[in-house]
């Protein structure tokens, strides 16, 4: 009888559920964190520990040789800025004024240049995507115009379209625009990500339409209504969109592989891949590069974590 009362006791059930949940979460946390632990510790292992047939969980000797090899393999300019010459059309003739100016930064290890390229690509794609997706989501949610439903349906259908299907047309388009083998050739395709528009449209629909109408009655312009009223209220959604876009652009190895070829324009993942030998692989160097590449994305996640979790929970509730 006492045993049955213990099983029926709500406090005992809550305690058992708490213990079970804690064990499951701990196991999942370990499984997710272990690859990162293995990469970070592998970056500081010597060659004997890495090539050992039995796994070495903790380095027997902490070394920075792998990072030295990563920084000494290749070198490149830190940045390169091109200012084109001014061209004027006079009737049938085109007059060129001045010369094309190329400004190059100091020579640094190529890994630093690749990391700068990757950070610039991800941050630029994140900012442009958040701005355009917020504006498009606001227009689709609060504006009534002809073809609105059809346009949104096309955006939703584009979410299910694999990127490999449109890769060849996108490659030819970037080539026609003169952007092939440039960082912008990777940024612009990410900006047209339909998921960002879909996500922020759902957030904008949760904002009462009466607030937009009140702004219109008070004489506020569309831009003022968007920047002062709508954008602050969908900020959690923008934060979620920012971290999704940053991670997507950082990890889009396939698009980077197709669009970028020059050594100076490579991203950190592509650059590390080119360092592999034909007959052998330096796993320590690869782990050092992976550890270096993981630092910015961890920092971005920690910064946007509050908006990310809030965006997930608010996106599921409308009204």
Q: What is the helix/strand order?
A: HHHHEEEEEEHHHHHHHHHHH
SS strand fraction: 5-15%
Provide the CATH topology of the largest domain.
MetI-like fold
Number of helices: 15
Low-confidence segments, ≥5 residues, pLDDT <50? 315-319
What is the H level of CATH, i.e. the homologous superfamily of the largest domain?
MetI-like
> Roughly how many Å apart are the termini?
49 Å
Largest beta sheet: strand ordering = 1-6
Overall residue-averaged pLDDT value: 81
Short structural description:
66% of the residues lie in helices and 8% in strands.
Fold and architecture overview:
This protein has a two-stranded antiparallel sheet. A two-stranded antiparallel ribbon has the order 2-5. The protein has 319 residues and is mainly alpha-helical. The protein is flat. The longest helix has 34 residues, at 10-43. Helix content is 66%, strand content 8%. The protein has two domains: 1-63; 110-315, MetI-like (MetI-like fold, Orthogonal Bundle), CATH 1.10.3720.10.
Which helices and strands occur, and which strands form pairs?
Layout: H1 2-8, H2 10-43, H3 47-50, H4 65-72, E1 75-77, E2 80-83, E3 86-90, E4 93-97, E5 101-104, E6 107-109, H5 110-142, H6 148-159, H7 167-176, H8 184-191, H9 194-205, H10 209-217, H11 222-233, H12 235-250, H13 253-259, H14 268-274, H15 283-315
Antiparallel strand pairs: 1-6, 2-5, 3-4
